[in-house]
Amino acid sequence: VQLQASGGGLVQAGGSLRLSCAASGRAIMGWFRQAPGKERECVAAISWSGGSTFYVDSVKGRFTISRGNAKDTVYLEMNSLRPEDTAAYYCAAKITYHSSNDVYTGVHEYDYWGQGTQVTVSS
User: Which of 15, 34, 55, 117 could pair with 40 as two cysteines, CB 3.0-4.6 Å apart?
Assistant: First the structure.
């Protein structure tokens, strides 16, 4: 599985960005972020079917994770960005052969990682 993340950048507080991650294979997908000096955290995850999603409390109502129709691209739409959203964002994939509605949020539960894309939100 190869993952290619893109879409990061510099934006003012209140602005929006959309991250994209091209992926191959039957996989549960997650978006994680890691700020300097902090642990990597799952901000959103989506099941293989797209029917189940997870959001960390701090992004609920502002971020939306989705899959493209062919399920080979996962998006993270980020609105109302805040300076505390500044971090390197990573997409990750967990191959699944079972339930199509499972989601996972643990760093160690994912098998493949893309390179990070930096998101910087200025105040």
Answer: 34
